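dude i think i finally got it to work??
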Amino acid sequence: MNSIDKIDSIVRVIQLAIAPVFLLTAVGSLLAVLVGRLVRANDRYRDMKRSMAEELQATGNQDPERLLEMSNLARRSHLINTAITLCVCCALLVCVIIAILFVGSILDVGVATLISVLFVASMLALILALLAFLREVLLASKNIPHHNR
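look at this
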């Protein structure tokens, strides 16, 4: 293979890698949103735990509604962690896909089946992450009263 053919091959691989790179950008944006929600939920949990300890010390009682909200925050935090883990798995799989595209091109081996399997796996991870995120959002909005206008 002459140098022009090698350059053309690499250019084609770069063109093929563009779509997965856009997917990485989207997953990165989703991760930023998830991390922000996790930080807020954990901060709220920590604040409630501190105020409940002060309340328990002052009155000897604990508000059952606060305990319920803390349980809700713990569940939300778990769902966000699950979504983050799945998004990271998706991103890692996409990175592997991009690497395999280049390695397959350089070594001139067929990698289409492997890339297809990895892409389906990355999409499944993303779907599960989005479902966990949806569940967390629904759980977060469950306690907010919705008024009809």
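The chain has a mean pLDDT of 89.
im so relieved honestly
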